[in-house]
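Q: Joint fold for the lines below.
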Amino acid sequence: MSQHSIAPALRERSAEAPAAVFLSDGADSCFHCGLPVPSGSRLGVMSGGTWQAVCCSGCESVASSILGQGLGDYYRLRSAEALGRRPESYALDFSVFDDPEAQKSFVHATPNGFEALLLLEGIRCSACVWLIERTLAAIPGVVAVEVSYATQRARLEWDPKKLRFSRLLQAVRTVGYRAHPYEPNRLELLQKEERRSALWRLFVAAFSMMQVTMYAIPAYLAEPGEMSADIGQLFRWASLALTVPVMFYAAAPFFRGALRDLRLARLGMDVPVALGLAIAFVGSCTATITASGEVYFDSISMFVFLLLLGRYLELLARSRAASTLRHLGALVPEVAQRLLDYPETLRTEQVPAASLHPGDLILVKPGEKIPADGIVQQGESQASEALLTGESAPIPKRAGSSLLGGSLNLINTLIVRIERIGADTVLSSIVRLVERSVMEKHRLVESSERAAGWFIAVVLLLALLAGTYWTAIDPDKALWVVVSLLVATCPCAFSLATPVALTVATGELARCGFIVTRSHVVEGLARTTDAVFDKTGTLTRGELRLTSLSVFGPLTREDCLRLAAALEAGSEHPIAKALAAAAADEDAGVPVATSIRNEPGGGIEAHVGGRRYRIGTARFVRAKAAKIAGEKACARAYLACDEGVLAAFEFGDELRPGAAAVVRDLRALGLRVHLLSGDAIGPTESAAEQAGIDRIVPEAPPADKHEYVRELQRRGAIVAVIGDGLNDAPVLAQADVSIAMGHGSRLNQISADAVLLSNRLDDLARAFRLARKTVAIVRENIVWAFAYNVVVLPLAFSGMLQPWAAAIGMSGSSLMVVGNALRLLGDGRRHDANAFVPVKNRALARSPTLGS
Amino acid sequence: MEILFLLIPLSVVLVLLIGAVFWYALESGQFDDLDRPALEVLADDDSPHDPRNPRP
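A: Joint structure:
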């Protein structure tokens, strides 16, 4: 594979280093990415006076850039999640983005210059954000840089006279990340605005509540006659002044909601709230002006504050989860190499991928992604469609084979004729299908809202009754009785019952690696009756691992493994990764292979330590008699030297750790577990057997999987589907609750209801248990709110409830509800050493494998 | 107790002032990213002019 270094000058510098001192012995981990360093490698960087080995020239250039800018703190600050990722080593030309035409869509003019938003790829921890910010800030001509870890976006402002935009993209690349220009859609902007105004409203209500309560306390504490009338009036007028913003600004959503509900002839929570607020305010104003009766300004403010608090928590939980995943990293590359006069020459020009047309011919090098659907014109290689399908085995491609936009070209350069672009590609059509299903979702209605509707009707009726009753008996008291009735029996506790519990639950779930993006997930998980698993990538790891190694020749197992890993060292093939992982597991130092020759569909031939070896298919290796049994292997490779076959490797897709346990746990919770797979019967059955699932459907295309879930739902089941690849998208869309694996296709993560970021199946079981506990707590909260209201109603009706008592009762009941929800805290914590610690703390931990 | 006739209106004015300050803080994006400032403390940063997060 061609290794095109970004910074050739640095390569020369390291070659000057005395070989005797700076040679790796094969037991090192790369300073930058943490992967094993091939023994005999001379690559390295100087960090803090010590020489640190790196594994490839890509890591070397990135590490040199980082250290050269004085940002070595990055290695000290970053978390363990940032490891294991090799930066791309091939060069990219960003000059297409300097074109004013191209810039029109994402660049805005500001008083200081130009402004653009970038989407960042590859951020694993807060230190990555720090690194990118410092790198960009150091470029002369940059006016402002703001990077957000939560949304993985950057806002850049620069002076176009001093700086070209492509330089900024290049700068991000040199420290090992990718940046894409980005235009936020209207929905996001709207939600951001919504969040901001909700926070502001909450603050207004909170502040007013604190002040007005302070003004109201003297009136409560004073003996009759102790406080002079004009001081009393002073306090009342001050309270009124500070309650006006609450009524007309902070509480505005309630009035709007009540009007909307009444227009639709529906009794929502907003109706009694609006009614209570209106009556209380008008009554209190009247009392202030006429200097008689009671005022309720403090109750009004507290009331509004508590209600807004519930709503804000709900909003936060929903938007925080969604923004983390709405990160649409490019599945398709932005640039493509278009061939100018093929077949005469292989000259290419770099063009934006968006400007390709059907019939264009492009050149795709190994390691690059295919920009659009097409057909191979010339060349023989293998492509990985894992990003789209989640399947790990690479697919051979030769002239005439079709290619999917978004897949990765693995071994050799291909010349591709574009067939379909943009909205016509397979990828786009699946995206549209999923989007449509998503909008038609939400079959689960929140049950607490339904219960509250009835209660509200009862309260309103009683308020009316109280009003008429007291008007007949003692008209002065009538207004206050009605107000205290509406206030004390406030829907506060009710309206907080669900959001608070959901917020806490969502946070706890996030702490165990389970990110919830839609509000119905927690309740859905609790009510699920059937769990449907995809096989490849979900129950299994989705990547090949070495399952058996048989030795036929004179060499030991370890030697064969080392040779095989050496031969496959530069390859992107899943078998290469499996061998590298196996070698790393056994701590086997991998020698360096030279004169590597790659034959697509056959294998790799190279020289190691002076001898020639081959690894690949039986035919390629010219193996004659060696035969190993076993149909369960996904892939097989043979290692041979000139004398004969040395070893045979078998690779399989292992079941994830905890697969059997999660099936057992789900069964214990009363769920039925199913396994659907597009894979052949053999591997599917063996996986099901190991996991303990007895309802399986092998060899199922996406349409069959979709139908299976529909059938279950027709029989009344609530179905949760767990999957990862793009061909699971229709099934996930049909499910009542869809869960995408964290490593799975980006599209699934974006459109699924929840994402299992940690990829650990035991977290899944924990999520189900937590969901059930949450629903139980919500039910308790509702029961409590109901009981409280039932007790308070008669008191208020009989006129025995003082305004301060009403306010205390209201806030007390709300606090009870919140406290009950807090019982969910701590359930997300794992009791093992590999706890998914929140990133804030991780960034402070030193990685044990790296020096600094 | 006559001093209250000064103090109470003063407190109302103060509340409005504080409200304005919070509004300013909210608008200038102080509450947008609550994670990064925690890390900033750890970094060695000597440069006086910082293009990061300029305030209007």
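Q: Anything notable?
A: The mean pLDDT of chain B is 75. The helical segments of chain B are 4-27, 36-40.
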